Amino acid sequence: MSESKAMKATTYREAVKEAIREAMHRDQRVFLMGEDVGHYGGCYAVSKGLLAEFGPERIRDTPLSESGYVGAGIGAALGGMRPIVEVMTVNFSLLALDQIVNTAATLLHMSGGQFNVPLVIRMATGAGKQLAAQHAHSFEGWYAHIPGLRVLSPATLEDARGMLWTALEDPDPVLIFENNTLYNMEGMLAVDAGPVDIDTARVRRPGRDITLITYSASLFKCLDAAEVLAGEGIEAEVIDLRSLRPLDDATYLASIARTHRVLIVDEGWRSGSLAAEISARIMERAFYDLDLPVERLCSAEVPIPYARHMEEAALPRVDSIVATIRRMMSHG
Amino acid sequence: MGEFRMPSLGADMETGKLVEWLVTPGQPVQRGDIVALVETQKGLFEIEVFEDGIMGEPLVQAGQTVPVGTVLAMISSGTEAAARTEVQAEPPAAPAAAPPAESPVVPPVAAPLAGSPGRFACSPSARRLALELDVDLATVRGTGPGGAIQRSDIEEVATARKAGAAPVVALEKPVAAAPIQPMDAETSAARMRQAIAAAVSRSNREIPHYYLETEIDLSRPLQWLAAENQKRSIQERVLPVALMLKAVAKALRDVPELNGYWLEDRLQVKTEIHIGFAVALRQGGLISPALHQVDRLSIDELMRAMADLIERTRAGRLRGSEVTDATVSVTNLGDRGVKTVHGVIYPPQVALVGFGRIAERPWAEGGMLGVRPCVTATLAADHRATDGHQGALFLEALNRHLQLPEEL
């Protein structure tokens, strides 16, 4: 059945755009706002053409004031709209941290359950495009610390296409992190691709020897590494977390019960990272399944460098993932 | 050529410290000779060799602590014929640690963690697997990071065992010397407590105990004993406990299923009756050294053996075989005023006999009430090996033998 499905070639950028377009058509309360999303077509060209299709009322350019327009998005959501707010990069979202953490995430609690904030914030994250230390960090792990938020990280075309609508259906604030290195990724997507669940992790490649836990752009590095290792007889199971808050513990714990070994690959910094949280959960709930200490491969703890070779050296790479797993597996 | 190894002086022993060599390289030794002193949590033991030959250069120096099964020295045989006989001779106290002399040399068993004697670097999953497959970590060669034991190492040992091969434990090179420092009394007491804790925990975890008890009228044996002791000097006098031990041995001849080991999921009945006799130590803790072949000793021989054993236990000079080859245990808490003892079986044994205080109690017999010296005898037995029926037969036999003291 699935093989006979009509497929089309597309990109991650097009998949996100298609998701926004579908949401605008399905629900008149949905609108997009952010810096340069209208006339310029989005800093990553995600919203190119949407202004002409939907008009300035629903595709709204904002001033360079993250705190202001994220706050406006919260107000619109409280007023019955379903706003999609685009923040250019996660680094800039820190200017709106008060609105996101102190307001969007807390209002339901502060109002005694009276006011939900059905807001979706999309933002670009991650390094790899030589955008230097003020545009290339990965703070999604920070947001995953905050109760009251749902944090998603679509890696595949299906998730880029399908997570937005499900997020808009959620009555509470949802943050969607799009890794900027993925926008140009090409692939095949079902013509009728639609909403997907935003609760579960997925095994993207099954394997019996070691569990690789990762998300977003690192997923493809892990899949490439697994392919290299398969040639050496090492079968790595690759898990895409998809949702960073809440975490789908069951999927990776079940995998560890089979493989007894774990490597977590996370583009965030190691100290206090999402990888640290997952590692702690594994200690708490799968200690007796472990045959090796849990290991983590994260970014070097420096501001992400500008120079290409330095930037590459700072990030988890296919070769460093392969080398780490070879070392872990070298002991029988 | 034979290998002289660190013996296992009990199921709970994982490492031993070679304290002193009592022979020099090149010296001829005979089966049964005491060649070294070894210290464990339970104290200092004299270690015997199990074959004749010429002692080789020591592979482990005095002061080193090594895992059970480590080769301490090679023993070269005098003649080929002698060597062949001795290879088939009775294995040392630790069966698991005695591979054929020709076994290939393999890399080291997992080294104990620095500063944590008796603990091995072992992954949590491998530890759980070892428990499931009943693999002793001390016999496993770790191939993980830093020599840690991993699942694959446990699986290898279990597979080898299934294939009928004894787990091979040997050393490629001597294990690095542990820091040499005399154990102070406190550490030694704490270690003994740990050793006892390990043994009784295993017992309560693995052995489904059942308990039987019976009241025994000691009028006849005590009268006989009093008359006997009248004829003897003070040094030669016999204590009631000797009668009880002898009666236990004879009752075990009647019910042999209680004398043996539960190993590899089956009862292995032993023909020789070696009674482990719990001796409390003054510094705390206890050891149950074995009185050998009690059923064949006369009462006088038994008294002398007991006196010798108690003295050497308290002095900390027991032979390795004496702490390992008991086939059954007896505990006597009567002199502490206890009425009834419900004991914990010492694995892999399958029974423990307890005696309480000998005291005058009302005794009804033939419609008359009298006052008799009585003792409560108890049996704690492993229900995997025997049922209450055999246990009851044993207590009945015990009573019967005690009532015929002159035949003991």
CATH class of the largest domain in chain A: Alpha Beta
Main interface: chain pair and counts:
A-B, 9 and 14 residues
Classified in CATH, the superfamily of the largest domain in chain B is Chloramphenicol acetyltransferase-like domain
CATH topology of the largest domain in chain A: Rossmann fold
Itemize the secondary structure elements and their pairings.
The complex is a heterodimer of chains A (about 325) and B (about 400).
Chain A: E1 7-11, H1 12-26, E2 30-34, H2 50-54, E3 59-61, H3 66-78, E4 82-89, H4 90-93, H5 97-104, H6 107-110, E5 120-125, H7 140-143, E6 150-152, H8 157-169, E7 174-179, E8 186-190, E9 202-205, E10 210-214, H9 218-230, E11 236-240, E12 243-245, H10 249-259, E13 262-269, H11 274-286, E14 295-299, H12 308-314, H13 318-329
Parallel strand pairs in A: 2-3, 2-4, 4-5, 5-7, 6-7, 10-11, 10-13, 13-14
Antiparallel strand pairs in A: 1-8, 6-12, 9-11
Helix pairs in contact in A: 1-8, 3-5, 9-13, 10-11
Chain B: E1 2-5, E2 15-21, E3 28-29, E4 34-40, E5 43-48, E6 53-58, E7 65-67, E8 71-76, H1 80-87, E9 112-113, E10 116-120, H2 124-133, H3 151-162, H4 185-206, E11 209-217, H5 219-230, H6 240-254, E12 260-263, E13 266-269, E14 275-277, E15 279-280, E16 286-287, E17 290-291, H7 299-315, E18 318-319, H8 320-324, E19 328-332, E20 351-355, E21 359-365, E22 368-382, H9 388-402
Parallel strand pairs in B: 5-18, 14-19, 19-20
Antiparallel strand pairs in B: 1-8, 2-4, 2-7, 3-6, 4-5, 6-8, 9-10, 11-22, 12-13, 14-17, 15-16, 20-22, 21-22
Helix pairs in contact in B: 2-3, 6-9
